[in-house]
Structures are given as C-alpha cells and as structure tokens.
Backbone:
C-alpha cells in the first residue's frame, strides 16, 4: 500500500463516506490490509461518519479470528475473502447508498454492464468508454459464509475487478490502497446514478 498511514487514510475515507450519506445509520463496513496475515476492519454497530482508530479491529484473514475478542462488522467474511483472493487488494469499502441498493434490484441479471460512460476511466485499467465494465450481482443473504463461498466459486471462472453488488444491500469495492478504493467508490457511485437516470428516461 502506498499510504504512509493506511488507517488514517481509511478513517478520512469513512468520514467522507458518512458526509455523502452512503452509509446511513450504522450500515456499511470498511477495512484495510495490515499485511499478508491480518486486516483491520470496522467494529459492528458504529456510525461510519464518527469512527475513530479504536473502532477498528484486527482480524486474521485466513480464519476470521479476532484476537481482541470484540465483534467486527457482520460482513467481515466478505472482506477476508477478497483479501485472500487477491494479494494486491489493500483496502475495501462496503456502502449502502440508495443508487447501489436500488440498481442492484432493478438489474435482474447476475451482472451490471456499464458501457459508454467517460467515468469508466476512473477505474484502474480502464482506458476507454467503449469498453465494458461488468459488476457482478449476488443475491442477498444473512448467511455470510455461504455468500462468501458463492462469490469464491464465481471468482474461479470470472475476473473479480473493482467490486460487486449484493442485491438490495449495497456495494463492496476495493483498490490497491485506500486512495484507489475511494476513487473506485466515487466513480462507481457516479456510474450507478447515471445508469439509473438513463433507465428512468428510457422507460418514459
């Protein structure tokens, strides 16, 4: 990761997300990789706009074990899955914005296709609006281990870039560090809003 203090960068991102209204109430969860074995993730039930460094818990990536014994966010298993699948992921942001939540229900397929938008170039590796960006969508489940297993199975045959949507739930996205994850989140939120507005206009 490129940041000198990744946790400080993540805290700033969480406060920014809170100001955007993308994690209402105590929804959402954020994490940053410490090393190949551990990550730091938000404690359960905390307002993401009011977090402090003490609200992040160390979690073992391979086992989801929390050395402190405190309760991490409910979707911890999804964060550790992504870290385990891709060693280049340095930070993960899971939000509950209106755009991502509604669009994940409007789109009935298992993948949202984004194409034709200049803002696609906010995503790492994208160089043209003519390319397709596919954001997979998984059905919502309160069984996080089962959902993690479904995502892991999907990733065996499909590239897992940028993030995924959980239907009626929200967006989980990531980057090589907090700055890139934050850029991907902002870019995807813009794209989601454009796509919703386009579908509304086309439906008239």
Residues:
């Amino acid at each position: 990761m490129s940041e000198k203090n990744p946790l400080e960068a993540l805290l700033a991102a969480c406060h920014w997300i809170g100001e955007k209204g993308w994690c209402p109430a105590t929804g959402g969860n954020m994490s940053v990789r410490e090393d190949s074995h551990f990550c730091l993730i938000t404690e359960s039930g905390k307002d993401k706009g009011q977090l402090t460094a003490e609200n992040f818990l160390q979690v073992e990536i391979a086992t989801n074990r929390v050395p402190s014994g405190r309760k991490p966010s409910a979707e911890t298993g999804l964060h550790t899955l992504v870290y385990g699948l891709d060693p280049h992921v340095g930070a993960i942001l899971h939000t509950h914005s209106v755009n991502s939540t509604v669009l994940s229900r409007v789109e009935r397929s298992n993948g949202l296709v984004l194409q034709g938008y200049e803002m696609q170039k906010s995503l790492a590796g994208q160089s043209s609006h003519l390319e397709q960006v596919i954001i997979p969508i998984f059905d919502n489940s309160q069984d996080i281990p089962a959902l993690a297993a479904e995502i892991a199975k999907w990733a065996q045959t499909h590239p897992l870039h940028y993030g995924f949507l959980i239907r009626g739930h929200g967006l989980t996205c990531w980057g090589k560090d907090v700055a890139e994850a934050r850029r991907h989140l902002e870019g995807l939120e813009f794209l989601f809003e454009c796509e919703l507005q386009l579908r509304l206009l086309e439906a008239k």
